[in-house]
Structures are given as structure tokens and as C-alpha cells.
């Protein structure tokens, strides 16, 4: 009890800030590794870490020596594998985007997108929303109907009303505004894509293979949400997870 009292008496406000900062950074890193293509790699690193702890605990000298010497190579491998994601993360830190775009209005944009997607799922409507980043999507914008409208959940839901002139194409968001709707996207020719994916999913993969854009898909058949980046699909996520992923990846890379 005396030790506990001593601990709390020496606890400073700076210590609380330190703990919260570490927790926040850890949370952001966990968001970073949630992308589908990273899951198995991160699991592999976790297994190796556990094995190294066991080797040290039980004095398995040969195994401990091997894992200790592999450490620098594993670190290099981690940096190489996650180089694009780490670059995005560091860029966002330098620009303040690491804090979720709260100071840039991104939070409002991403909330509008996630809100519209949630409504579309409930109403069993399909949709595809593309967010321009560094690579210009002018050719895609030119293929649709130009709008230059403020992004609201209500407007996005209205665009994808069945049988409306624009509901079959994609919405392109540029600089926080709806640049165009009813846009035509290139379809992915990736033979490894699941046969269950329809035109919208293949279009989302196609545009993210050719550019650094992000794409959000609502399946009309399965009533699910998917997030696409760099030609990779994160399927069947909820609106809250979508908002988190947009917050992490949505800012442009300088």
C-alpha cells in the first residue's frame, strides 16, 4: 500500500500525457496494419517475437542466437514491406494529418462518406466513391457529369438512387468536393480477384491499380462495404472502420 501511495504521489501531469501519447501512437500503428495484405506479415513478426521470448526464458541458446542475429534483417524487411504505408504515415505526421485531419476539415468529409455508405447499405443500394489523392483523375472526371458540389451524406445517397442518370457510375471526390458523378472507371484485369466481385469492385481495384486514389464500394447484392487502395480490397467492413481507414489513408501524400 505504501508503494502504491508513493507511486501516485510522484505521478505527474507529464506522465499522464506520456501514457496517452504512447497509447495514441500505438492505436494509429494498429490502424496501419489492419490493411488485409499486411495481416499475415504482422502475424509472422508477432510469432517470431513470441518465439524469441520463449527462447530467452528457457535458455535455448542456439535458437536465441539465431533470432538475435535475424533481428536487424527482420527490421529491414519490415521497412521494405511497409515502405509505402510508413511514407504516408510520416508524411501525415509532418503535415498534422496524423491527427485524423481534425484541423483540415478531413474529419467532416470522411464522416459524410461513412454516413452515406451506412445509409446506402441500409437501403440496399450499390455505390462506388473514389477519392483523388496525388495522381490526377481528370480523365475519369471528364467521363462523368461535372458537379463541383459540397460533399454531404444526403447528396451522395441521392446520387445513387436506383434508375437515376448517375447511379451506375462512380463519384469522384477532389479537394473535398464532388468533382463529378456517373464516371467510368477502368476495370481490373487481375486474374486473382475473387469471382464473387462484380463490376463495381473490379472498377475500384482498377482505378487504385492505375493511380494512388482510394475507392469505397457498397455492394448492391451483398449489402457490404469494401475499401480499396493500391489494388487491394479490404472487404466487409463497417462504417466506423471505413471512417478510420479514410482518416489514416485519405490525406494526400506530399
Task: Summarize it.
The chain is 52% helix and 15% strand. The protein contains 10 helices and 7 strands.
Relevant terms:
254 residues, alpha+beta, YojJ-like (1, 2 domains, seven-stranded mixed beta sheet, 10 helices, 52% helix, elongated
Describe the model.
The structure is a single chain. With 254 residues, this protein is an alpha+beta fold. The protein has two domains: 2-99, no CATH class; 106-249, DNA integrity scanning protein, DisA, N-terminal domain (YojJ-like (1). Helix content is 52%, strand content 15%. The chain contains ten helices and seven strands. The protein has helices spanning 2-9, 13-32, 39-57, 61-81, 83-95, 106-122, 138-142, 153-159, 199-210, 239-249, and strands at residues 127-131, 145-150, 170-174, 177-183, 214-218, 225-229, 232-237. Strands 2-4-3-1-5-6-7 form a seven-stranded mixed beta sheet, sandwiched between helices. Strand 3 and strand 4 (177-183) form a beta hairpin. Helix 3 packs antiparallel against helix 4 and helix 6 (106-122) runs antiparallel to helix 10 (239-249). The longest helix has 21 residues, at 61-81. The radius of gyration is 22 Å and the shape is elongated. It starts with a helix and ends in a 5-residue tail after the last helix.
